[in-house]
Amino acid sequence: MLGEVLVFFYLASAMVISSLLAVVSRNPVHAILWILVMILHQAFMLYTLGSEFLTAVQIIVYAGAVLVLFLFVVYIINLRREERWRIFVERSSLGLVCFVVFLYLLFKNLAFFTALSPAFKANLPYHLAEATNLQWIARYLYSHYLFQFELIGVILLVVVFGAVYLLRKLKEES
Amino acid sequence: MIPFSYYALLSLILFIIGFLGVLFRRNLIILLAALEIMMNALIVLFAAISHLSKDITGYIVVFFLIGMAAAEAGVGLTLAILIYKKLKTIYTDELNYFRG
Fold this sequence. Notes:
Distance between the termini of chain B: 52 Å
Distance between the termini of chain A: 62 Å
Oligomer: heterodimer
Number of helices of chain B: 3
Strand content of chain B: under 5%
CATH topology of the domain at 1-79 in chain A: Four Helix Bundle (Hemerythrin (Met), subunit A)
Number of helices of chain A: 6
């Protein structure tokens, strides 16, 4: 129990800190690598949430494909350092007050979500003891959600066509 | 069992960080990366919902979200390269091709 909580807090703090560093770091390569750190921690968090399949998918797709794509684009486009911008909001104290008020409202509404879950726990089809998570995902993905699954494939195909078409047009122009 | 509100709070914080990144960064690539952070916040939220309510649908949504994030990154980075080749900059305050 304590170990579970400790692991959660480690993962949560690592994700928050690395995503903050990714957003504030001026060097784009550093930013992408901080996002990689965040995604690896998040993959382990998906494992603690009971889905080993999504852990694998997260690492393969995000760390293996998307972030490598980002790094390639950063390398293609030569970059100078991003300059600092002057602050254009003069009254930042007023903004802080608004932020605190919104944060209070959000915390207040979070109690609603926690009260929701036990109500529809009774008649749910998913029992972890009967099969593993991967088997359940496969069973649902290829029966209930088959159309959506194939739709994702079509979307990725359209993305490939679009990328090739756009960049080829550029090549012909130059 | 960690309560759901912790996961919701973590997701909220990550979403806010990503949103601030989209608002305040001017590099188009970092802007797309901040969009990925927002997407990851949603992934944490859906996986936590699915884990705590013992329902498989959230995991399926996470699967689709990962696929959509890959597609979105592909399109966004293609447009970033295109914008760079055409305008020689990817800083959003210098993109004045339409005189905006």
